[in-house]
Each structure stands twice: as structure tokens, then as C-alpha cells.
């Protein structure tokens, strides 16, 4: 894909304002930029990306909704619905501004928007701009979200506790408890978002950050339901030139600590950018990790422990025990961590980016999902790809110690590591020239060039 001046056109990206959504969108921007496109990012002011890390992109802000009480109350779905309602006019101003500034070979080729920023489709259409949807979650999640609408209509959700372990017939191996339902906020809001997102009206295509060899059958089902072409081009972090898309500062000192640990010995622990824990759960997690007698690298995001700033709530005794075996950081360079030879397992919340990053490095997982798509991903990791164990009980030190040793020490874990390595090799084939993701990416670029 050679770069040519006349192909140098502009793509306007509209990411959703969460780390797990910003990462794949900015990775897509880097991929398109390295293929000759200019990039403008129109972003919310809440969680806004740092322009200095992306000097090749232009950035335009949407109205400030960061004081919105829904974020403070943890109701992200209500916040997203509000963004969609409040920001259309400003988004159109941003598009118009870019159009006014465009040079002869720098016109807007298309708008690529996160699926949950669905107001972008209508805003683009009004200005006769082509648009493409980016789905940042797994294909299986999208099927499960769509199923929610029928399950609700048929009276199956909300479901009683007695049904939580029953399989959802059309979604096997997903059980009722794995459905992508909110833990905060209203079911009605989730269903409203799901139906808005499912309803593609004028977009030309859908991009998925997933891989054919992982989600072949889910992608085939989605393609049957959809009139426009799909481009599964994951894992996008493997195609994007290496650069950080973190909103928080990465603490690289953990890489030097990892250098001192032996191969496959370290369990990496991170519950992502949104999940919270209670003080009691953090203390149980800490003792479980210490008692497992495995070295551990643990990301404790500032503000992620309810009622605490950071780890000041841990006792002196516990902190001393942690420092003998473990290393705690506020935010890690996660992709480098997972690629480090010392890391042999990942205790994760199973956000889709973390899941892909772990699988791509052949690192088996302990799945501790909290909400929404994380439960679907956890189920696929543990019951479809067989590269992880589910930690389903309450967070309790004995359980944590046992599951860490099962993954890091026992035969069961060694088998998983072998399967993980095998899956990693299959994914590498999808990325290489002639592989499914590589082909999809080429076709996507051809499509955008031909607009
Ligand atoms: C959110 C939702 O929780 C998740 O269910 C959905 O799939 C995406 O949005 P998040 O908690 O941000 O996800 O998790 P994830 O999708 O895994 O994204 C987190 C990103 O932050 C990953 O790309 C990871 O590499 C990065 N990260 C995480 C760091 O760079 N450093 C860290 O210390 C932790």
C-alpha cells in the first residue's frame, strides 16, 4: 500500500470518551495515517486524548459534558445517551470547520465513529459525508447485546437468580449471568443504546476490532443480519505503529522490575480503566496474591478503590508482604508488560482490549469480569478459546491464592499456556500478508480511497 499524494485525504474520527474505546480508534487513526490519510479527531472533553502524543493528528473538542452528574454517579450509559443528544450541532460545526479548511487533496473522505457515538451518523449524513462505524467490542458481544431486545420482549430479563446459570439458547456458551447487562443504571437505557447502535441507517461499512480466527461464526451471523460490508481488522494494536494511547501516565519502572523475574513466573493483575473495588476486596486480593507465592505486578488505578485515594488503606504489614513479592503501579504500559517473557498469566477484568492484547501475546488469563461485555469475553476466553480460568466466587484470599496457583504452577495452567501459544501463532497468520485481518484492512483502505 504505497503512499501517494493524490490519495492523501482526510478521515475524521469520532471516538467514545473511554480508554477502552479511545485506544482502538486512535490505533485506527495511526493505521490510516501510515497509509497516507490525514486524521482529525473530534473528541469529548471528558477523557480527552492528549494531542501532544499524536502530533500528526488534528483535534477538535465537543462541548464540555464532564460535569454531568451521570458520570459522577457511575452511570456511563446515561452519560453516553446524553452525549448523543447534546452534541450533534457541535459535531456538525466541527465537520463544517474541517470542510472549510480543506485543501485540494485533503477533503474529508469519510467519518469513522464509535458505534456508541451514533449521533455522528446523522450529523455526517446531513452534510453529505460518508460514514463508517467502528465496533470496539467483540462480535460475540454485539450478538449478545442484540439478543437482549428479544429476551426483554419475551419476558426473560430481568431474570431470577435461579436462571443465572442457564444457557441462553441462541447464545451458547453464554449463560443468563453473562449477558451484557448494566450493574449500575437502568435496563431501559441499555436497551435504548443497544437498539440505536444496532440500527445502521446510512453508514457504508462496519469495522470490527476482532479477528476471523477467533470469532468466525459470530462474524458470519452478524454479516447475515447486515446489509453493509464488515471489515474485521483486529487486533488493531498489532497493525498500528507503536505509540501510547493512554489517558494516564504509564509507569515504565515495572518493566525493569519484570526484567529481574524469571520466565513465565509473574501474574499481571489489572481490572482496566473503569472498574472499582471495595477496600475489603482489595485487601483480599492483596493477601491472595501474596499467599500464592508467585511474583505479581498489580495495577491499582488511582481512585479505583472506593473511599480511598490509592493504596494508603493497606496496613503496614500487608504493604511489607507485598513488597517482598510484588510490584504495584498506578498505570502500566500494558502491551509491553504482556509481551514481556516474565509474564505468565493475566488476572483481568476482560475488557475487550485487554482480552485481545493478552491472547495476542499467548498469555493465559484469570477472568474476573465486572460488567457489560466483560462477562461475554470472559466466557469466550474460558469456554471457547480455553485459554483462561473464571474466578466467579466472591473475591476471597483463599480463592485467589488457589486460582493463581492453578494458572501459574499447575499442569492445568501449563496446558493453557500451550493453547495460548498456539492461538497466538494462528493470530499472527491473520495479521501477516495474505491473512484475514491483513486482507480486510487492505480492502477497507481501498474502499475509503474509492469514496
Ligand atoms: C471498557 C469496558 O470496561 C470494557 O468492557 C469494554 O470492552 C471497553 O471499555 P476498559 O476497562 O477500559 O474497558 O478495558 P479494556 O477494553 O481492556 O481497555 C483498557 C486499555 O487500557 C487496554 O488497551 C490496556 O492496554 C490499557 N491499559 C490498562 C494500560 O495501558 N495500562 C494499564 O495499566 C491498564
Give the SSE layout:
Layout: E1 10-14, H1 19-34, E2 38-43, E3 58-61, H2 69-72, H3 76-86, H4 88-101, E4 108-114, H5 119-126, E5 131-135, H6 139-153, H7 187-198, E6 205-208, H8 212-225, E7 230-232, H9 236-239, H10 253-259, E8 266-270, H11 279-292, E9 296-299, H12 316-325, E10 326-329, H13 334-339, E11 343-348, H14 352-360, E12 365-367, H15 373-383, E13 388-390, H16 397-408, H17 411-431, H18 436-450
Parallel strand pairs: 1-2, 1-4, 2-3, 4-5, 5-6, 6-7, 8-9, 8-11, 9-10, 11-12, 12-13
Helix pairs in contact: 4-5, 6-7, 6-8, 11-12, 11-16, 16-17
Uridine-5'-diphosphate-xylopyranose binds at residues 18-21, 23, 137, 246, 270, 272-274, 299, 331-332, 334-335, 351-354, 357, 372-374.
Main beta-sheet strand count, sense and barrel state: 7 strands, parallel
Radius of gyration: 22 Å
Q: Please state the second-level CATH architecture of the largest domain.
A: 3-Layer(aba) Sandwich
CATH top level of the largest domain is: Alpha Beta
Spatial shape: globular
Q: What is the count of distinct domains?
A: 2
Q: Separation of termini?
A: 17 Å
Mind explaining what this structure looks like?
By secondary structure, this protein is α/β, with parallel strands linked by helices. It folds into 2 domains: 10-245 and 433-450, 3-Layer(aba) Sandwich (Rossmann fold); 253-428, Glycogen Phosphorylase B (Rossmann fold). It is built from 18 helices and 13 strands. The strands form 2 sheets. The chain has a 7-stranded parallel β-sheet with strand order 3-2-1-4-5-6-7, with helices on both faces. The protein has a 6-stranded parallel β-sheet with strand order 10-9-8-11-12-13, sandwiched between helices. Strand 1, helix 1 (19-34) and strand 2 (38-43) form a beta-alpha-beta unit. Helix 6 crosses helix 7 (187-198), helix 6 crosses helix 8 and helix 16 (397-408) packs across helix 17. It starts with 9 loop residues before the first strand and ends with a helix. Residues 1-7 have low confidence and may be disordered. The site of uridine-5'-diphosphate-xylopyranose has 24 residues, from helix 1, helix 13, helix 14 and helix 15.
Amino acid at each position: 500500500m504505497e503512499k501517494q499524494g493524490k490519495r492523501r485525504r482526510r478521515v475524521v474520527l469520532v471516538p467514545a470518551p473511554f480508554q477502552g474505546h479511545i485506544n482502538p480508534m486512535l490505533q485506527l487513526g495511526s493505521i490510516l495515517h501510515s497509509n497516507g490519510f490525514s486524521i482529525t479527531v473530534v473528541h469529548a472533553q471528558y477523557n480527552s486524548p492528549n494531542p501532544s502524543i499524536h502530533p500528526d493528528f488534528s483535534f477538535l473538542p465537543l462541548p464540555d459534558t464532564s460535569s454531568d452528574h451521570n458520570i459522577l454517579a457511575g452511570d456511563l450509559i446515561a452519560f453516553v445517551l446524553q452525549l448523543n443528544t447534546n452534541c450533534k450541532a457541535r459535531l456538525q460545526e466541527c465537520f463544517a470547520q474541517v470542510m472549510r479548511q480543506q485543501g485540494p487533496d485533503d477533503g474529508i473522505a469519510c467519518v469513522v465513529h464509535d458505534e456508541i457515538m451514533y449521533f455522528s451518523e446523522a450529523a455526517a449524513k446531513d452534510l453529505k459525508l460518508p460514514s463508517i462505524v467502528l465496533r470496539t467490542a467483540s462480535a460475540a458481544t454485539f450478538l449478545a447485546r442484540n439478543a437482549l431486545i428479544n429476551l426483554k420482549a419475551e419476558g426473560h430479563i430481568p431474570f431470577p437468580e435461579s436462571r443465572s446459570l442457564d444457557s441462553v439458547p441462541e447464545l451458547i456458551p453464554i449463560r443468563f449471568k453473562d449477558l451484557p447487562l448494566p450493574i449500575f443504571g437502568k435496563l431501559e437505557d441499555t436497551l435504548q443504546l443497544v437498539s440505536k447502535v444496532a440500527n445502521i441507517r446510512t453508514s457504508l461499512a462496519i469495522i470490527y476490532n476482532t479477528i476471523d480466527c477467533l470469532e468466525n461464526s459470530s462474524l458470519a451471523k452478524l454479516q447475515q443480519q447486515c446489509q453493509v460490508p464488515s471489515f474485521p481488522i483486529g487486533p488493531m494494536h498489532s497493525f498500528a505503529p507503536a505509540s501510547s494511547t493512554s489517558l494516564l501516565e504509564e509507569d515504565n519502572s515495572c518493566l525493569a522490575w519484570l526484567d529481574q523475574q524469571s520466565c513465565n513466573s509473574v501474574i499481571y493483575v489489572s481490572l482496566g480503566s473503569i472498574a472499582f473495588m471495595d477496600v475489603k476486596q482489595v485487601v483480599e486480593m492483596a493477601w491472595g496474591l501474596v499467599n500464592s507465592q508467585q511474583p505479581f505486578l498489580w495495577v491499582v488505578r488511582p481512585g479505583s478503590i472506593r473511599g480511598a485515594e490509592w493504596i494508603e488503606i493497606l496496613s503496614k504489614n500487608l504493604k511489607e508482604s507485598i513488597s517482598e513479592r510484588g510490584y504495584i503501579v498506578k498505570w502500566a504500559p500494558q502491551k509491553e508488560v504482556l509481551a514481556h517473557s516474565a509474564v505468565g498469566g493475566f488476572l483481568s477484568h476482560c475488557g475487550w482490549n485487554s482480552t485481545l492484547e493478552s491472547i495476542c501475546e499467548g498469555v493465559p488469563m484469570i477472568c474476573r469480569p465486572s460488567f457489560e461485555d466483560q462477562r461475554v469475553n470472559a466466557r469466550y476466553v474460558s469456554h471457547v478459546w480455553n485459554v483462561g480460568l473464571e474466578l466467579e466466587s466472591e473475591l476471597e484470599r483463599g480463592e485467589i491464592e488457589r486460582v493463581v496457583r492453578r494458572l501459574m504452577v499447575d499442569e492445568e495452567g501449563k496446558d493453557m499456556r500451550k493453547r495460548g501459544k498456539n492461538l497466538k501463532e494462528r493470530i499472527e497468520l491473520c495479521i501477516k500478508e495474505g491473512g484475514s485481518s491483513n486482507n480486510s484492512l487492505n480492502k477497507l483502505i481501498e474502499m475509503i480511497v474509492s469514496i
